[in-house]
Structure formats: structure tokens, C-alpha cells
UniProtKB/TrEMBL annotation:
A family per Pfam: SH3BGR
Family: Belongs to the SH3BGR family.
Domain of life: Eukaryota
SUPFAM superfamilies associated with the record: Thioredoxin-like (SSF52833)
Comp. bias intervals (Acidic residues): 146-256
GO terms under cellular component: cytoplasm
Organism per entry: Cottoperca gobio (Frogmouth)
InterPro entries associated with the record: Glut_rich_SH3-bd (IPR006993), SH3BGR (IPR051033), Thioredoxin-like_sf (IPR036249)
Protein's name in the database: SH3 domain-binding glutamic acid-rich protein isoform X3
Ranges where the record places region Disordered: 139-256
Length: 256
């Protein structure tokens, strides 16, 4: 199973970038296999994310903001639910993955099931034999998370409104670029059609010229033939006249 994290690589929102880095950094720290899918540069990723985020998880404008997390085709949640899972030490359950042996989450599951109560002390905490991340033992990670939660709580509503406006603006820009691309494609198609029409007209003119030349040649040949026929007829008539004159001359001589 591969965890899919939908991100916006070119987001102008500092809050969105911080949330994305928080999710990616935590998954890398846990060594969880995941794939980053960019919705800013890939229209298919953006449409798939929108269609597969449950309606109840979408904001009022219907546009879910990154980061959004999926396990294959199954929806895990957004940043807020991811953050809550971190606070509750239930990230693996949030991701739909079995916790690795020795992890804090696995230890909590054992305690809840009551199968290894001896591994807990009187206060209900895991003993030192269970591996706990160094950052959590030192308390740094928890302090940083609390500080981040406080900062987000102060301007949460304003940031969400700004994020929604920025996402809407980015989508409008993407739509405009798509429209410009389609318009450019239409112009190219029109130019190609005009060129084809011009070529067809030129070919038609050339064919007409060829037909005209052939017709003129045929007419010239016919005229020449007619002239030859006329000359032959005239010569024949002259020959007949000469023969008649000779015959008349002979008759006159005989009469004398």
C-alpha cells in the first residue's frame, strides 16, 4: 500500500507550504513509503483529489485545500486530522497502516488490548524497553507541535479564507492558460485550413489553364486541317477547269 500526499508545489500560501512540509517531514521520519502528487502542475491529480475527498471534508466553496492524504484509493484525511493523529500517537491508524513492532503506537495498542500489561508502569506509560523516538523523549517535538497549534489557532479562520482565495486564484489562472492554449490551437487550425484552401484554388487554376491550353491546341489543329481541306478542294477545282478547257480546245480543233 502506498500513501499518496497531494501537494501544491507552486502555492503562494505560507501556511499551506508549512503544512505540506510538516506532513512530508513526519512521514519521512517514520520511514513510511509515500508518493507526492502535485496538483499545481498536473490537472489530472487536481481533479482526482477533488473527486475523492468526501463532501463533508470539503470547505464551503467545495474546493479542498492541500495537503490531502490517501492510502491508495482510500481517503485518510487533511492536515487537521493528520495533526490530531500526531497528537494522539495514532498516525499509523490514521494512515491505515499497521504500526511497526516497538513503536509507541504499537505499545499503546498492546496496552489497550490488555495482552502485555506488564510492560506498563503504575502511571500507565510504556517502560524503557519500548523504543520511543529521541525527539519525543526529549520533548522537543511535542513543544514544537503545541507552538504550531497555538500559532494556527490565532489566525486560523483568516488563513483559511486567504488560502481559499489563493487556491481559487490559482485555478482561475490555470483555466485561463488552458483557454489561451485552446484559442491558440484554434488559430493554428484556421490558418492551416486557409492554407489548404489556397493550395486547392491554385491547383484548380493550374488545371483550368492546362485544359484551356489543350482546347486551344485542338482548335488550332482543326483550323489547320480545315485550311488544308480548302486548299485541296481549290486545287481539285482548278484541275477540273483545266481539263475542261483542254477538252474544249480539242473539240474546236477537230471541228476546224
Amino acid at each position: 500500500m502506498v500513501i499518496k500526499v497531494f501537494l501544491a508545489s507552486s502555492s503562494g500560501s505560507t501556511a499551506i507550504k508549512k503544512k505540506q512540509q510538516d506532513v512530508v517531514g513526519f512521514l519521512e521520519a517514520l520511514k513510511v513509503d509515500y508518493a507526492q502528487l502535485d496538483i499545481a502542475c498536473n490537472e489530472e491529480n487536481r481533479m482526482w483529489m477533488r473527486q475523492n475527498v468526501p463532501a463533508e471534508k470539503k470547505p464551503s466553496n467545495g474546493i479542498p485545500l492541500p495537503p490531502q492524504i490517501f492510502n491508495e484509493e482510500g481517503y485518510c484525511g487533511d492536515y487537521e486530522t493528520f495533526f490530531d493523529a500526531k497528537e494522539d500517537n495514532s498516525v499509523y491508524a490514521f494512515l491505515g497502516l499497521p504500526p511497526p513492532p516497538g513503536s509507541k503506537e504499537a505499545g499503546q495498542a498492546i496496552v489497550e488490548n490488555g495482552t502485555h500489561a506488564e510492560e506498563t508502569n503504575a502511571e500507565g506509560n510504556l517502560d524503557d524497553s519500548i523504543e520511543v523516538p529521541v525527539e519525543e523523549r526529549n520533548g522537543h517535538a511535542h513543544v514544537e507541535e503545541e507552538q504550531a497549534a497555538d500559532e494556527e489557532g490565532e489566525g486560523g479562520e483568516e488563513e483559511e479564507e486567504e488560502e481559499e482565495e489563493e487556491v481559487a486564484a490559482e485555478e482561475e489562472t490555470a483555466d485561463d492558460e488552458t483557454t489561451e492554449g485552446e484559442t491558440a490551437g484554434d488559430e493554428v487550425a484556421v490558418e492551416e485550413e486557409e492554407e489548404e484552401e489556397e493550395e486547392e484554388e491554385e491547383e484548380a487554376l493550374e488545371e483550368t489553364d492546362e485544359v484551356t491550353e489543350e482546347t486551344e491546341e485542338e482548335e488550332e489543329e482543326e483550323e489547320e486541317q480545315e485550311e488544308e481541306d480548302l486548299q485541296s478542294e481549290e486545287e481539285e477545282e482548278l484541275r477540273q477547269l483545266e481539263e475542261e478547257e483542254e477538252a474544249e480546245g480539242q473539240e474546236e480543233e477537230e471541228e476546224e
